[in-house]
Amino acid sequence: MAKRGGFTLLEMLVATALFAVLAGSLYASLHIAFKARDSATAALDPARRLELALNLLEQDLRSAMIPKGILAGSFTGLDGKDASGNESDCLVLCCTTSEAAYQGAADVKKVELSCEQSAQAGEQVLLRRVTNNLLSPRTLEPRVEVICRSVRAFNLRFFDGLDWQDIWDAGAYDNTLPPAVEVTIEINTNRPTRQAGIYRMSRIILIPCGTAASTTTVALARGDRRTG
Fold this sequence. Notes:
By secondary structure, this protein is of the alpha+beta class. It has one domain. The strands form 2 sheets. Strands 5-4-3-2-1-8 form a 6-stranded antiparallel beta sheet, with helices on one face. It has helices spanning 9-62, 215-227; strands at residues 76-78, 90-96, 108-118, 123-131, 143-148, 151-159, 164-165, 168-169, 180-188, 198-206. Helix content is 29%, strand content 29%.
């Protein structure tokens, strides 16, 4: 009578052991790969967040309107500090908009940028308040957007053609815009950096409608500032 083919118990045990070793190796490789992916994503997250915030601010600044006419309001940048002594500047400007998808949107919008403490998140956030339809007969509530979280510092500097200034009042500069604005944002992060827990990014944004102020205008503006 012919014997039926099959595996012995020893062969089954060896095959099971080899499969377990192979499965363990695959699991270890996948674990390392996913851990590396998560680490890379976490490392790039601060840069990605700041890049998106600066891109949005650059769109507003590059489309800033000269503060003259009915719809164009003032271009005003103020220097400020938070409770911890970190830079917490603010800026108000009018710029053109392509946000026609919003109901009641006009060709010009008013943008306000400032840092505020969020009671819900327990952190400082960079807010962008946008008011469309500036010709509306009634006062409209601005649309509030959080463009960056965990903000440690928000600093603005304005180039007047000769030097960088911490504040800018278009009225003091004969209703002109600065040729360039330097924006610096610092955020708190859990990732180790050169400064523990702090990630910083700066960008110099050129304003197409900006004009270098004359020496006389700069002197007068600085004189008014010192007087104030």
